[in-house]
Amino acid sequence: MKIYNTLTRKKEEFKPIVEGEVRMYTCGPTVYDYAHIGNLRAYLFMDNLRRVLKYNGYKLKHVMNITDVGHLVSDSDEGEDKMVKAARRENKDPYEIAEFYMNAFFKDLDALNVDKPEIIARATEHIKIMEEYVKKLIENGYTYHTDDTIYFDTSKLDKYGVLSNRKVEDQKAGARVEFDTGKKNISDFALWIKAPENHIMKWDSFFGKCYPGWHLECSAMGYKYLGETFDIHTGGIDHIPIHHENEIAQSKGFSGKIPANYWMHVNFMLMNGEKMSKSLGNVYTLSDLIEKGYEPMEFKMLMFTSTYRNQINFTWESLDSAKISLQRLRDGYLKELEGTDKVDESEIKDYENRFLEAINDDLNMPVAMSVVWDIIKNPKKSKDLANLLLKFDEVLGLDLKNYKKQEDKLPDEIKELVSKRDEARNSKNWAESDRIRDLLISKGYKVQDTKEGTLVKKG
Ligand code: AMP
Ligand code: ZN
Question: Is position 3 within any domain?
Answer without folding.
Answer: no
